[in-house]
Design goal:
single chain; alpha/beta; 7-stranded mixed beta sheet; 10 strands; about 30% helix; globular
Amino acid sequence: MFDQKKLWDKAHQDGEINHYSSTPTELAEEVIKIIQPSSKILELGCGVGNDSGAFTSAGHHVLATDFSEVAIRKNSERFKDDSNLTFEMLDMSQPFRFADNEFDVVYARLSLHYFTEEITRRVFSEIHRVLKPNGYFCFMCKSTKDPLYGKGKEIEKDMFEYEGHVRHFFNEESARSMLDNNFKIDEIECGDGKFYGSDSAYVKAIATAVK
């Protein structure tokens, strides 16, 4: 399997996605409207930090993580004067270092669809563990309706490697299965949109932790 960390380190080093860093995404704007003031947020896969900065600008406290060392280094410098925003490297495939019930919100936009089903289920379990009771879990993943679905080498069901990128595509059924009994689903939606300038399709969910 292609080294995904090297791929994203190079993308951030070359500045391939820097022009997406100035404005928050629609998902972040939606989440800001529903979460409680001064929430403690764990962001999984912060990328260029556009949503991280939007959350702190709205008065929240954010620990933004990514497995790209380059992304973390660049974001730490860019947002060095923001005392409510911390960046940290994190490999989601490994157990989280965070305490139980530590966060009010876990936010993951386009960062959970890189793992096998077995690992993805472990990640969802860790997210549930670190969320406070009734804490929000907000995520978006590429769906099986995405134009890239089925392209490249099949790794397992609904998971493919194409031009170096590994993607595990979701649908509503699989998203509900991942959330299972640990979360109450407040909203789940499948739709189309543009991600990083390309046509895509997504599954979006907002759920609260049941404990």
